[in-house]
Design goal:
The complex is a heterodimer. By secondary structure, chain A is mainly alpha-helical. Chain A is 45% helix and 5% strand. Chain A has a two-stranded antiparallel ribbon. The chains are: A mainly alpha, B mainly alpha.
Chain lengths: 272, 431
């Protein structure tokens, strides 16, 4: 009885799926393609390769680079993008000493809302404060950057490619998709998912920031440095995680060997 | 239960004797997972995964309790409280990654455990109840994992909750009110987040209770084994302790090695980047995908694209998705072959390796891919095979198949000799 029922139910599901498959197949055949081509699909590029000191299982943050990246954030990105999960005290991890952290914090105004009157006052930042919200009135909605390296596929390679990827719209794109012209006020960037980005090219030329360590501030260098910095803001505990991981794996490898020997010992002479 | 030759618990220490008289808990443990439980001697490594699943449950409960101490289930702060755990709580990042990857590890283990059951016919009499309880555990795990994924209140949390509760909206007449009742609102919000947190904390303990029943039911007939031949004599078994505690200890160490490699070096590999974006009801992600362990069933959900008479395609998909798991409940009665193990079922074995496994892998792949061609068509073919496998092929194969000859006993399978000479050669079981 149950098997007859099951065969009936099985036939029902199978026929429904065959029907669905047939409908899909007919559509594909009549259109001659799986999916109508789109500009986003044909012209979106995979991020460029980016090699950072923090990559790989043995990677470590390059603090010098993180400091440079922080400088780029502070002098360029911070005009529009907040960093609200990072506290000034965290900057000590980049190698700044206590006085430097205090000075950096004091450079930011922290808004304070009066609970009773609703009025906004502000005070200079303290190391315990987090980076303040950034008021923005322009087009688009600049995301907070604290987690951006983990919130996008390919992380730092993506931010690096985006920052260095602005270009004119390829003629081929306009030939194939005449309707896909970049709208007024947007900027063409093949590394952005829908190709047109509200953010104007933020890194415009060499020497936009002046690095105190003497590194030449090319657009490429600035993009690399700020991408490295954003890896740190997304996961400040990255170094500690890997430093913890190796001894743990070493111990577990040793434990596995011991456990295997114990297993062999217990089962010695017992065929199984 | 036990086999008549099972070791008896004989406490030697006066304290343990006293305890045994007042509350024989040590005796229970001894008989359940100690030297008092005789287990077939020929279990292979596939039999490690039950213990590993139990370990994962404990791991999830322990890390989860710690996380709950620092997490705040309110839509305005949930996302930031998770980041607070990652940044400011001592070893919080470890707890959170251990929990998130622990869920994935749990599902890896449980899928292997379930497919072990499929191949070796572990669901067959006299172990139907073990199997049924196992399917209940799997369903509870899915509910728990789904609600847990909502808690960080990222984009995938929010939209996943929207899509999954929307499935209930497909039920005719009561669907929409039911969805609103489940969510406590018209869309996922604070009410949903709070109840999901409450249930996410409750369900693991329900799972633990069903696990106790699962193990209890297992101990009535005793463990199955790779030959599928039932235990006949003492020489077929070894005491669980020390034999399988030693083997499970090795399995556990290897499991931990792999788990920690992911945990420390690729903890976001199995997650979706969008869940590091705070939930935003005004912005739908380009592709809403659940966690990887739901992909096969998500693919089945999306495989139904045409209305069947009066049944809308969406409802068909929902029925099929739940049906895909509910069908496992009927498996013991669909498969009438008296032979349990796939080792001795040449035809069933072919359908398992060349049908079910590839179909499952295709469903996995398609479930994580966007809902466009050719993935939809591939998932339709794979889903077709999936249902045909359980509802058509298994009943038919079990009637027409001619199984290979079975060994007389486990001992004979292991030693290649008949019962009598084998018995003469084996030493008495270790205490």
């Amino acid at each position: 009885m149950i098997r007859i029922l099951s065969i009936l139910v099985g036939l029902f599901f199978s026929l429904a799926l065959l029907w669905s498959f047939g409908t899909g197949a007919v559509t594909v055949m009549s259109e001659g393609q799986f999916k109508a081509p789109t500009a986003e699909h044909d012209f979106h590029k995979h991020p460029k390769a980016l090699r950072l000191a923090s990559d790989g299982a043995f990677g470590r943050f390059d603090r010098q680079q993180l400091q440079r990246g922080f400088q780029v954030y502070k002098e360029v990105c911070a005009a529009c993008h907040s960093l609200n999960l990072v506290a000034f005290r965290d900057l000590a991890q980049l190698g700044y000493n206590e006085d430097e952290v205090k000075a950096i914090a004091a450079g930011f105004e922290i808004p304070v809302y009066d609970k009773h009157t609703g009025e906004v006052a502000s005070h200079p930042g303290l190391p315990t404060d987090r980076f303040p919200p950034v008021p923005y009135a322009g087009m688009g909605s600049p995301p907070d950057l604290s987690l951006i390296a983990k919130a996008r596929h390919d992380g730092a390679a993506y931010t690096y490619s985006l920052l260095t990827g602005y270009q004119d719209q390829p003629a081929e794109l306009l030939r194939k998709f005449p309707d896909a012209r970049t709208p007024e006020g947007l900027h063409y960037n093949p590394y952005f998912a829908n190709l047109n980005l509200a953010m104007a090219p933020p890194l415009t030329g060499e020497g936009q920031v002046t690095y105190s360590d003497g590194t030449k501030a090319s657009v490429d260098q600035m993009a690399k440095d700020v991408s490295a910095f954003l890896v740190w803001t997304a996961e400040p505990k990255l170094d500690k995680r890997r430093q913890t991981g190796w001894p743990v794996l070493g111990f577990l490898l040793f434990a596995s060997v011991l456990a295997y020997l114990a297993y062999r010992n217990v089962w010695a002479g017992k065929k199984h | 239960m036990s086999f008549p030759w099972a070791n008896e618990y004989k406490p030697s220490h006066p304290l343990m004797q006293w305890m045994d008289q007042k509350l024989p808990l040590p005796r229970l443990v001894y008989n359940a997972i100690g030297a008092g439980y005789p287990v077939p001697r020929n279990l292979n490594y596939m039999w490690n995964f039950g213990v590993l699943a139990g370990f994962c449950l404990v791991l999830q409960i322990v890390t989860g309790i710690v996380l709950a101490m620092h997490y705040a289930a309110h839509e305005s702060v949930a996302f930031n409280s998770v980041e607070h755990i990652m940044r400011d709580v001592n070893w919080g990042w470890l707890m959170r990654y251990a929990h998130a990857n622990g869920a994935s590890a749990f599902f890896v283990v449980i899928y292997i455990h379930i497919f072990r059951g499929f191949y070796f016919g572990s669901y067959k009499a006299p172990r139907e109840m073990v199997w049924l309880l196992g399917v209940v555990i799997f369903l509870l795990m899915m509910a728990t994992a789904f609600m847990g994924y909502v808690l960080p209140w990222g984009q995938m949390s929010f939209w996943g909750a929207q899509v999954i509760t929307g499935l209930f909206g497909a039920i005719p007449l009561v669907g929409e009110p039911l969805q609103h009742w489940l969510l406590g609102g018209f869309a996922p919000g604070n009410a949903a987040l709070n109840r999901f947190f409450s249930l996410h904390y409750l369900l693991p303990f329900v799972i633990a209770a069903v696990v106790v029943l699962h193990i209890w039911a297992l101990h009535i007939p005793g463990s199955s084994n790779p030959t599928g031949v039932e235990v006949k004599s003492e020489s077929d078994t070894v005491p669980f302790h020390p034999y399988y505690t030693a083997k499970d200890g090795f399995g556990l160490a290897v499991f931990l090695l792999l788990y920690c490699a992911v945990l420390f070096f690729a903890p976001n590999m199995l997650g979706h980047p969008d869940n590091y974006i705070p939930a935003n009801p005004m912005q739908t992600p380009a592709h809403i995908v659940p966690e990887w362990y739901f992909w096969p069933f998500y693919a089945i959900l999306r495989a139904f694209t045409v209305d069947i008479f009066f049944i809308p395609a969406k409802l068909m998909g929902v029925l099929a998705m739940f049906g895909a798991i509910l069908v496992w409940f009927f498996l013991p009665w669909l498969d009438k072959s008296p032979v349990r193990s796939g080792h001795y079922r040449p035809l069933y074995r072919k359908f398992f390796w060349f049908g079910l496994i590839p179909a499952m892998l295709v469903l996995f792949w398609c479930g994580g891919a966007p809902a466009e061609e050719p993935y939809v068509m591939l998932s339709q073919l794979a889903a077709l095979y999936y249902f045909a496998h359980f509802l058509l092929i298994i009943p038919i194969v079990s009637s027409i198949e001619r199984p290979d000859p079975l060994p007389f006993s486990i001992t004979e399978a292991v030693l290649g000799q008949d019962e009598k000479s084998a018995l003469g050669q084996t030493e008495p079981s270790a205490a």
